[in-house]
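User: Predict the structure for this protein chain, please.
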Amino acid sequence: MHLFEFLLGRSMMVEDTVASGEAKRITTHISHLEDLVIDSGRVGGNKAINFIKLFLEDQHQHDSFVLTKKIDGAPSIVFGIDPSNKKFFVSTKSIFNKTPRVCYSERDIDANFDTQAEGLIAKLKACYKFLKPIVKSGIYQGDLLYTAASDLKHVKIAGNDLLTFRANTITYAVDPKSNYGKAVTRSEIGLVVHTAYTGTIGALSPVYDVDVSVFKKDPNVFLVGNRIHDISEELHLDDHDKKAINGYVRAASTHLKNLDDDFLDMLSRTSKLRANIHRFVNRQVKNGDFVAATDEFVSAFKKWTTDENDSSTAAFKKSSNRDASRKAIADMLAAAPDTQLRTLFAFMEQIAEAKKIIISKLGEISGLSSYINDGTWNKIPGEGLVLVDTIGHDVVKFVDRQTFSKANFNLPNEWRT
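Assistant: Here is the predicted structure, written as structure tokens:
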């Protein structure tokens, strides 16, 4: 059975959202596993549960899904050979805009990104210079790890002298005397490539299984892959872990059954409610909390939603418009029973707990240790995982939001300034 059939169940009919001959949808934002229930209701909830179950199956090989370690680089770079003119180009995610920004030269980078931060322009120019010699053909996307010697720092952590770099939130560290450390020291840029594309600019289709051997070897470029080919070698779950994960899955399944179809239907039709739930959860993460299946949490969500929308409502000049806006928010919240919201949050809580165990058991990425430095060097397993269903084209991320996402919200990103 393919993963897509496993996730949805054989009895369920699924509409194919990718028409024959059309480019697949480009994923510029990947959903957190526990958020699938918010955006896709019971179907999303079942997917989340079955994604968790995949890690309990002791599968060594898998042909219907791609599993990668999520490496915390930034910014995201799209580069390669434009098939329309055979020229090398670099860009960012802006290549997926209605009017793509495509840079065939450093002059194009200045012209296309003139309103952007100088740090971004400098990194794009470094990518243009050093990636051009290693690309034979094709279009690829990757995340930058570093682009200058100043990005590399020698730091003593737990008594060990390590070479470190931080592009976004996680600081990666490597023994400078190791093969990886020597390769980093010799190189001018570091990059992890996670996606290849077929088609033409403006009509690209993603391929998530990238063979990094297609690139020419060049000491100026430190390039790592993030594909997991053997789950059993990368993920070390013992019987205690599996028992705990099964407990969370059973609890999540019970909560999902207790979500009413009427509530889930209303949630699917009310984009503003979904948006407010996402924003509130992110606010909690930023403040060091997450979801809690309590009456207090539900009350806090409803109060925050009212207060947040009231501030924008106050901008209306006519009192009738202000009254109508406030009534719309009140009606929306009234249509979301406290018991159902609490059950929704309980489901998310259980999925998140199971996910945390999986992330905690990950091995290191290509010899790179991962740290979050918020004044203290805190070693973590990494950012997490990305799982791609190659049949149904679902893409989800397994990230410990209480550790990584909190830091991601709060730590500055120097390349943007």
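The mean pLDDT is 86.
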